[in-house]
Amino acid sequence: MNNSEQRYCTYCGGTLEPFNDFHFRCLKCQRVIFQNPIPAMCVLMIENEKLLYVRRARNPRKGSWDFPGGFLEPGENVEQATKRECKEELGINVKVGKVFGTYADIYCGDGYTSTVLNVYIFCERGPGELVPDDDVDGYAWFPLAEPPDNIAFKHMRVALTDLQRVGKNNQSDQS
Ligand SMILES: [Zn+2]
């Protein structure tokens, strides 16, 4: 997917031309401006066959239901980012589990578009109440098979479909 919204070089402000299907080249300084995906992580926290969602307090998609998580900071691995985001958004310490899968998507902010790679990771919560803060203003538990209508991002639907399929497989394995 092209990032057609970025038209100017981040180094010199020169005009960009397509370099190939995905990246751009600056006409002025000749640098190639890469449009590689930004890594992000999403928390899958399941209790009593219900999945934890948080309500976005900011744009993009303010007011919609998202999974806890966010973009990785420089130097962080996914586990560290997961612990930090859960502390920031929910006020809790978590035990980080296995990676469920990775899901590519587009993130459209205020005047910019980025490709994102979302790493989904299972978590168990530590002691303490969930206290929404930072980028979220609420939380709710929805049954695995009945996600809320107002879901923030496309990759969530894809991941939920996979998660439900895995759940069914696990059930059939046990029978
Ligand atoms: Zn340039």
Question: What's the structural blueprint in terms of helices and strands?
Answer:
Blueprint: E1 16-18, E2 24-26, E3 32-33, E4 38-44, E5 46-47, E6 50-56, E7 65-66, E8 69-71, H1 78-90, E9 94-108, E10 113-125, E11 136-143, H2 154-174
Parallel strand pairs: 4-10
Antiparallel strand pairs: 1-2, 2-3, 4-8, 5-6, 6-7, 6-11, 9-10
Bound molecules: zinc ion.
Explain what the structure shows.
The structure is a single chain. The chain has 175 residues and is an alpha+beta fold. It has two domains: 35 residues, no CATH class; 138 residues, Nucleoside Triphosphate Pyrophosphohydrolase (Alpha-Beta Complex). It has a four-stranded mixed beta sheet, with helices on both faces. Strands 5, 6, 7 and 11 form a four-stranded antiparallel beta sheet that branches. It has a three-stranded antiparallel beta sheet with strand order 1-2-3, with no helix packed on it. It is elongated and about 55 Å long. The model has no long low-confidence stretch (mean pLDDT 91). The site of zinc ion has 8 residues, from loops. Zinc ion binds next to loops.
Quick overview:
The chain has 175 residues and is of the alpha+beta class. It is 19% helix and 37% strand.
Number of domains: 2
Q: Cα distance, first to last residue?
A: 43 Å
* Helix/sheet category: alpha+beta
Total beta strand runs: 11
Q: What does the average pLDDT come to?
A: 91
Q: Name the shape in a single word.
A: elongated
- Which parts are unreliable, with pLDDT below 50 for 5 consecutive residues or more? none
Q: Which class of the largest domain in CATH terms?
A: Alpha Beta
Q: Determine the CATH topology of the largest domain.
A: Nucleoside Triphosphate Pyrophosphohydrolase
**Which sequence of strands runs across the widest sheet?**
8-4-10-9
* Residues in helix, %: 10-25%
Summarize the main sheet: 4 strands, mixed
H/E element order: EEEEEEEEHEEEH
What is the CATH homology-level superfamily of the largest domain? Nucleoside Triphosphate Pyrophosphohydrolase
- Please give the radius of gyration in angstroms: 18 Å
CATH architecture of the largest domain: Alpha-Beta Complex
